[in-house]
Amino acid sequence: MSSSSPAAVAPSQDPVLDVAALTFAYPGAPETAVLRGVNLTLAPGERVAIVGESGSGKSTLLHLAAGLERPGGGEVRLAGTSLGGLDEAGRTRLRRRVAGIVFQSFHLIPTLDARENVMLALELAGLPDDVAGRRARVAERRRRADAALAAVGLEGLGGRLPEALSGGEQQRVAIARALVHQPALILADEPTGNLDSVTGESVFSLLLEQVATHDSALLLVTHSAELAGRLDRIHTMHDGLLREG
Amino acid sequence: MGLIWRAWMRDWRRRPLQRVLTLLGVVIAVAVVLAVDLANQSAQRAFDRSMETVAGTATHQVLGPPEGFAEALYAELRSAGQRETAPVVEGAARLEDGRSIYLLGVDPFAEGPFRGAASDIGAAPVQRLLTEPGTVLPPRQWFAEQDAADGDRIELQAAGGRHAVRVLEADGAGEDDGRVWVTDIATAQVLLGRDGRLDRIDLRLEDAEAQRAMERALEQAAGTAGVNPEELEIVESGARDQASRELARAFRINLTAMSLLALLIAAFLVYNTQTFAVLRRRELLSSLRLLGAGRGRVVAVVLLEAALVGLIGTLLGALAGIALAQALVAQVAQTVTDHFFAAAVTQVTPRPLALLAVLPVGVGVALLAALAPALEAARHAGPSGQGAGAGEARARRRANRLAVTSLGLLVAGAGVLVTGVAGLPGAFFGLFLLIAGFVLLLPRVLGWTLRGLAALSAGRSLPRIGLRSLERSLSRSGPAASALTLALAATIAVSVMVGSFRGSVEQWLGQALTSDLYVTPVAPAAARDAARLPQDWAGPLLSESGADSLSTGTTVETGSDAGRVELFVVRPHPDWLEHLPLLEVDGPRDGLADRMAAGDAVLVTEPFAAHHDLQAGDDLELAVPGGRRTFTVAGVYRDYATPQGRVMIPHGAYARDGPAPEGVGSFGLVLPPDVDPEAAVERLEAWLAQRDPAAIVTRPAELEQESMAIFDRTFAVTHLLRIITLVVAFIAILGALMALQMERAREFATLRSLGLEPRGVHGLVLLQGGVLGLFAVLAAIPAGLGMGWILIEVINRQAFGWGMDLRWPGREVAGTVAVGLVAALLASLWPAWRMARMRLLPALREVT
Ligand SMILES: Nc1ncnc2c1ncn2[C@@H]1O[C@H](COP(=O)(O)OP(=O)(O)O)[C@@H](O)[C@H]1O
Ligand SMILES: [Mg+2]
User: CB A27 to CB B839 under 8 A?
Assistant: First the structure.
């Protein structure tokens, strides 16, 4: 983990994610509160599942935790920093250091090959920050990306464009991309939702294994009780409120 | 269709700006085409009206030597039973306020069949011209402007000196006739110094039979009236202004070509936005098809929308076009006025037909642009998801096919130009084929370029993403880059053409104006050719100015075996041939002076040689005093004085067999180094102040200035169209980038979720705009220079017969490059801003 990461500076007891009394409504529908006072805390390395019906606000919570949108009321602290006080650029900078996101439909950049997709996360996070010279940095990024791809079982497929990869392979690339810069928190929104059950199972196992390897915390949205049961804690989203269990 | 229609049209509310751009494309296309058409029509009418007022409905004219012929000839013709004849004395005059007018002296009794419709000559007040001597009939508009009344006295300055006349007001009917003032023959003869002489006799000859009868009658009448029949000529009345018409036509063709170019670029814009509008709603189309909506129905909805866009765009475009035409027509009218004597039309009267004619343009462009994507969407409507990518793959295949087509067009265009078939329209068609081929090839080239650049940018993810997404969306970026390229290339081409033209004219003026001072009659520019100064001023002018050499130049119109031609009769300075920009000489150049002096050689200008298909060494028969003689064309020289060209003949040769007409057109004086030009001008002006007719001293610099001012006015209109073209191209880039960014909204949102700051999004979009701009600029430079070369070497030679030295206008090209880049970057600003502050959640949202 990079020494400049605030997650590293924070004492290990400090939560990676601390959501308190969070409320939110979409600008398009300001009358309808999607989140109505959500509380949630993730300690470093902790793995939490959120389940709930479709439309209950799980994805919204995840996106707010990632700082993709400004919280309505209440507070979201990511690695000790409150998102409410940050502008768009500030949230972005915090997110790229602290968090990695895995989406349901992978969201790989279609114009970059697998390796470049992984390298992109390093490049955006400004890593490595201890190597001088652009060439050397690019070489180091390439090395780390290849290692990350190998770790998810994609050795030798780095040169393929996303359109030439299967769904399971694409999600593995996405996992490598989310983890390559060693974030303290992985946010995953239905990561197996677009995969068949066999592939889904292997991708899910891989995700858990990788999260463990990197010592990252994991906030996972799923509607599968079976998958949720393999994590440390389960929360249920209902009607804009989060209940433990 | 109700719900389908509603679902389809909801897009207008969701993406108003996109749709407004489509509409704007139609508006601009229609406006430019209509404006140019209206301006052309109005200028044409101005021109025709001037000509008609002067020439009336005569089919033929009897023309004589420049000084005119005895009026007895007319009387003889009439008494020989030739009733459909009307005598005319005409020339330029000047009002007290300095404005120039054109005096038309007619015989009101003979006029009835000739100019009646055009100018109300023949109506009641015209009779008063006869009963009240010394009266003139100004155009009605003059009374309104001057607040003058019937019977007021004014002074007129013309070839016959300064005279007081009374003005008559033609009450009631009649259009205003611009600058043509009508008077009777006798008054005109006095005012114009044409005692007992006529300039021409207008004729109406129904057929060849009548013409032969007229020829016989003229022969006889000439004998009785004591006029040398060799000096008389019956010409078709259109023939005289044919040359002027040529220029006007060439000017109009240039304008029309520009408008077609603007149309082409606007069509791009419409196509681009329409395609996108349809593609973006591909999912909706698929759903509709899956729900059982027939293919025909889906296509119908798309086309109905396009037709509506076309209709509304056409209506708005028509309004904009009329406004634009007002600006254009003033320009065109000024140009016509600069080159001819009168053009009174300053107002655009939109004809319903012209308005109807643009309807197919507007609706057609919109429909055509929507047809291809509509059919495609209907054909391939399947489950959504693979839509866009598959569409792009198809677009790439189409680009390949287009590349082959474009090569064919390029070859065909080059063929048409090289072989020179079909004259000027053929040349334009060839140029058009070349442009079309080039434009169709561009997306392919852009694709290669982007791939190359992406390869070069390995290791820099963001530029790579930007470049690759441009390449993937070639169906957006290609047409936009093509539109910008075309606009910039056209700008460069016109710069090359106008710049070369201007440079050549300037250089020519420098060479042609070999004297230090000129003494010219006071006359309106267009009538200057006909104005004369007394030959016997030569001695006093030399002594007053202290010059050591004097030249004269006189323009006369005469008959030849090539029709009516303009002769430039010169008594040159001794060293004149050294300064003359000779392009071609018959035999050795050294002997030219001797051959010219020998009296049977002439020089012709480049356009003259081109129009009459003459080369050095050819023969040319000219009517000169004493009869017709055959001259050798000893050489061809560069001259931009007249588009129809002229023949330069030494005075000695001209007047060898008979006395030349009185007077000279202008004097040129070469001062020795020790004479101060300022002082010489003052002395000459003092001397001239005592003399009649009025004359002025000008220095070459002033003449040059005046000429260049006219030149610049003539081409000012091209600047306007250039701006329009650039604006359209700007909008094309803007539309394309917006479409591109919207298509890639999810990609951008992903990048943002991975940690790209809004600033980075800005940079990415600006990079894309900049790359498109840079590509367009780099492609436009060779294309523009090539087009410029074709304009100069093919189009202008065909249209005017003018050759010019090619000049590479470095500064203009640099300016265009800057404008192109700035336009592309400016066009990226808005999409960049939008994308940077795009809301991420909707773009990233997943449906479970
Ligand atoms: N952009 C949006 N504008 C308005 N409402 C939205 C938007 N996105 C989602 N919603 C609403 O917010 C609610 C929660 O959505 P989401 O968080 O995606 O649910 P989940 O992930 O639990 O299925 C839903 O009722 C949905 O309709
Ligand atoms: Mg969800």
Answer: yes
The residue whose CA has the least distance to atom 18 of ligand 1 is: A59
Q: Are residues B691 and B549 in the same domain?
A: yes
Do B736 and B480 meet the contact criterion of CB atoms below 8 Å apart?
Answer: yes
The answer to pTM > 0.80 is no
pLDDT in tens, B780-816: 999 999 988 888 888 777 777 777 888 877 888 888 8
Distance of residue A124 Cα from the nearest chain B Cα, in angstroms: 6
First to last CA, chain A: 32
Tell me how close the Cα of B805 comes to any Cα of chain A, in angstroms.
Answer: 49
Residues B62 and B162 in one domain: yes
A68:B464 CB<8 A = no
What is the atom index within ligand 1 of the atom nearest the CA of B839?
A: 1
- Dump pLDDT digits (tens) for A56-72: 999 999 999 999 988 88
Buried b (16+ CB within 10 A) or exposed e, B511-526: ebbbbbbbbbbbbbbb
Give the residue, out of A56, A105, A190, with the most ligand 1 atoms within 8 A of its beta carbon, to mutate for a pocket test. A56
Q: Are B660 and B66 in contact (CB under 8 A)?
A: no
**Residue ranges of domains in chain A:** 6-244
- The range of the structural domain enclosing residue B582 comes to 517-698
**Nearest residue in B to A27, CA atom:** B839
Per residue in B286-322, pLDDT (tens digit) is: 777 777 677 777 788 888 888 888 899 888 988 888 8
Q: Do B264 and B207 fall into the same domain?
A: no
Minimum-distance CB partner of A110 among B459, B464, B747: B747
| Phi, psi (deg, nearest 5) at residue B539 | -60, -55
CA pair distance A145, A173, nearest whole angstrom: 10
Q: How far apart are the first and last CA of chain B?
A: 31
Q: Do B465 and A104 touch (CB under 8 A)?
A: no
Instruction: Report CA(B744)–ligand 1 centroid distance (Å).
Output: 22
CB atoms within 10 A of CB B297: 15
Chain A nearest-CA distance from B339, in A, is 60
- Which residues, other chains included, contact B12 with Cβ-Cβ below 8 Å and sequence gap of 6+? B19
Task: State how far the Cα of B443 lies from the Cα of B451, in Å rounded to an integer.
Answer: 12
The dihedral over CA atoms of B822, B824, B826, B828, expressed in degrees to the nearest 10, equals: -150
C-beta separation of B190 from B153 below 8 A: no
Q: Point out the least confidently predicted range of A112-116, B332-336, B588-592, B640-644.
A: B332-336
Enter the CATH code of domain A6-244: 3.40.50.300
pLDDT at B173: 39
Same structural domain, B154 and B275: no
Of B667, B683, B698, the position where a domain reaches its end is: B698
Which carries the bigger pLDDT value, residue B522 or residue A52? A52
Final residue of a structural domain among B187, B214, B236 = B236
